[in-house]
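Quick note —
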Amino acid sequence: VLKPGGRFMCLEFSTIPQPLLAKAYDLYSFNVIPALGKAITGDRDSYQYLVESIRKFPDQERFAAMIADAGFARVGYRNLTLGVAALHSGWRL
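Predicted structure written out below.
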């Protein structure tokens, strides 16, 4: 619940806008992250699920549109770490 005048902020994994970097990150995320998860926690499946769910999450523009469609104003986002993550925000009127 966010009262009128409140600011919504959401930090999410995102879509890397540069194709070459996106391919490199896909190789890393689908191969290294699950392997590290298994080595550290003994659980590869949870980390495989994480990278698959990141890929299915809406890109920055689509997620911003969803926030606006939910009734927020002054919606925007800022890419972090070359687009690996994005900080989304909007104001409830």
